[in-house]
Fold each of these.
Amino acid sequence: MRPRTVWQALARPDYLLSSWPWRAAGHLLTGVVLGVVVLAGLVGLVAAGGLLAVVLVGLPLLGLTAFAGLPVAAVERWRLGWLGEGPGPTGTDAARVPGTDAARVPAHADPPAPGLRSWLGTRLREAATWRELGHALLTGFLLWPVEALVVTVALVCPAALVATPLLLATAGEGRELKVLKAVTVTGQAQACALAALGLVALAAGLYGVGVAAGARAGLTRLLVLPRVGEAEARVRELARSRVRLVEAFEAERRRIERDLHDGAQQRLVALSMTLGLARLDAPPDGPLAAQLARAHAQADAALTELRELIHGIHPQVLADYGLAAAVADAADRSPVPVATEVDLPERLPAAVEAAAYFVVREALANVARHSGARRARVRGAHGHGRLVLEVEDDGRGGADPAAGSGLTGLGDRVSVLDGRLAVTSPPGGPTLLRVEIPCATQPTADDPCA
């Protein structure tokens, strides 16, 4: 198995033959460059803010120092990817937190409202902002000199010893050379001995570079990646916010359906009745009767289309009688004969009922459009805290969710509620779509225990 972190690579016998020593060295070298840039930036920001504070222009610059750790931490999360500890050079500003179920969690929470003021307030209240500021100060004033020293002692000095024979023949003209300003070499035999010693020191130095890079990455991870508790809390909040969004979306759908039903539909009904009465009062022959007849037919067609639109937004049968009745209604509307076996003695949460209904309706629409099936079946039940729905047809099969069909959208709708959608559709059929959504039943209004 390929090592995923530098610590795993250090434990393998082929460490020196892999790319990990050079990745570790690159991590330390880029850390030196980053540290110098951070030092210059912090000193320049504080100096400019102090000089301009007399005219009040420097006060915002000094205030920006509190956020200096944010860009530095973003770069560090990017650099951690080289050692298998973060999102990597192609990832986003999010991190994998060991010990959590979330593969990636955002480094910072989203502001509750748009605008600079909300963003500043959110960042100032976060502990992560101050940890990242402390990390930036460590990087600029302490860590980069240590990294430079490690690279010099572990790589540069052994490399100079390895190059002693070449340096003696060129710079020393074959007679005398002072290596590392400490050892005087006067012959090729001595130079070759130092080169052999340099190879051993270089091998040991590559291990030292790996250890130093792993330790540096561990410190970085401690300061700039989300803590396990923070990550779990954020994941829980994200899950709750997704549910709230779904519930708000379904509530808005019901409001639109209700407004259309009680407003536009009733006006069209009244218009159709008025046109019908006008036809009764108008002379049976003549252009006026023909025009009224056309207007009456158009009003009836518009009313029919509006009713279908309202039913598609949120069917009233779903709100009044629940999922089982709504599935039966969808089966009756399907051009393919559909048998239903949905056993739900109690109502489910509104968001779950809506998602399950629209999944069944879209699945039946796919059956009618693409499967060539002669019949279909819908089964559903609730047990062990889960709603299970199955839509099966005897069509040609070959449905592929990865082919960009509507199955992808169905899976997204179900996943918002932490549900799962699975499709089994071998060529030649049959096709089985199975949906599982975790949920609890809700007592009905006439339940004496409610």
Amino acid sequence: MIVLPTAPWIHYVGDVCAWAGAALAARWQHRRWPEETGHLAATTRPGYFLSLAAGAVIGAWLFGSGNTLRSAVVTLSHSIAGALAGGIVGVEAWKWAKGIRRSTGGGFVLPICVGIVVGRFGCLFAGLPDFTYGTPTDLPWAVDLGDGIGRHPVELYESVAMALFAIVYVRARLYGAHWANAHAFHAMIIVYAAQRFAWEFWKPYPTVIGPLNIFHLLMMGLIAYGILWWRRGDDRAAG
């Protein structure tokens, strides 16, 4: 078992570092593939980003609080998974109203991945008050967050999974893989939701249907969204 030093305020340090990392990733992606950012700027308007921000904030607090208000420690909270889902709803609603049917998420893929990879370290070292810890385990890499109980480091599981996807994505873009150019955002959503779905079984969250918690259901919705949009894009290309 690995004993980790924890403090609740580290969560905010992790947030700052995650935003900084995402900004640097966006800068690199823009310099490497400027046409992607150019397309986004030409397609969207300020309302796009306002809808994105509003949806992300609402989704973050809606799903985060919807989980913790049913837990042993009742509190309001926010969730990156909820923010991602809410942002998608906000953007898709804006695009539908404006008649835009093309995917606009490619430029966000690497920044989102880096933000999650870095931000989850803040969640881990924030300790038990962050309420993102895993269930008890006796695995050699179990972490003690201050209560003497070895737990799954689910935050690190998520960081590693998204770091691996980011590496695969960048390599695929550099080699001109079709999926990385046409469906990168959808692929990222599917991978994020699938790995998060798996780790949710190792979290002490209240269930809503059988063994599934609120985030299991949300991840199922995101996987369906990613697959449907991917197939829709291929159908348009074939047509």
